[in-house]
Amino acid sequence: METVSTKPAFSLASWFDFKGNNTNLRTEVIAGLTTFATMAYMVAVVPNMLSKGGIPFDSALTVTVLMTVITTIAMAVYTNRPFVLGPGLGSVAIFSYTLLGNDVPLGIAAGIVFISGVLFMLVSFLGVRDFVVRVIPHSVKVSVGVGIGLFIALLGFKQAGVVVADPRKNVLIFGDLASLEVLVAMLGFFLVLFFVSRKIQGGIILAVLLTTLISLPLGITSVPDSLFSMPGSIDDMFFQLDVMGALSPVYLPFLLAFFIPDFFSTLGALLGIGAQAGYLDKDGNLPGIEKTSTWTPVPRRLVPCSLARY
């Protein structure tokens, strides 16, 4: 008599090796929601930055969401690593303000990003990236991750109004520290510190939710008119490439401005997140880094933005 197996043909626990990674579905759901909450600002910030360069906001929003979803799922399935891919704010700033802001045609600007992506793929597939990781001193690896964290913190403080730009001196100065926006932002900051120090699961998303609830009656945050709407068309951005024009020597500095910072910023993010997750070996290297590097440059062949890890 044959025994019929009652085990499901597919399960998330077996596919992502929950047992081997010392995790469970509840932990993964909380981690996913927390990651979404902490990087949701990107959905508003990136399209807004691209719109400053003349790209329609709705198109930029659709592309930002699509590329984040597609590449993050690909990263999870292909590498089984908890890395979320999203547009790198530094690269978006260069694309929007430096290129489009100086009247570089959209096709050529996108071509520059495309070429940077191709170079990134070659570096990853040829093992150059893995070699660079192994020769960099451990102290430098740690400092790169810290530097990226400080950069993200600076962006958060600027968005909250804690610091503002002084165009007269080209420096950052403190904003109105007595404003409601700044006070609520700092409350959220200290809530995050408190929950994380207490090792409360989902502490970051809990701090975000509490801060949002406090912001609503104060008028800092408003409830949207509708919860759902059709995404904007991406015709204005899809495959708008002029690779031959981007190969002009005139644009070489812009190409380097995309490629070099992106190479080291993604490296720092990988090592920083890998250290927190316990993936690094005794020398501070990330085993299998070439697999995690595969999906970063792929979207640059389709849309004019560069991806970074979160």
TrEMBL record:
One Pfam family recorded for the sequence: Xan_ur_permease
Membrane topology: Multi-pass membrane protein
Alphabetically ordered keywords of this record: Membrane, Transmembrane, Transmembrane helix, Transport
Localization, UniProt: Endomembrane system
Entry GO MF terms: purine nucleobase transmembrane transporter activity
Transport is among the record's keywords: yes
Membrane-spanning parts: 29-47, 59-78, 83-100, 106-128, 140-157, 177-196, 203-223
GO annotation, cellular component aspect: endomembrane system; plasma membrane
The keyword Nucleotidyltransferase belongs to this UniProt entry's keyword annotation: no
Family affiliation: Belongs to the nucleobase:cation symporter-2 (NCS2) (TC 2.A.40) family. Azg-like subfamily.
Protein name according to UniProt: Xanthine/uracil/thiamine/ascorbate permease family protein
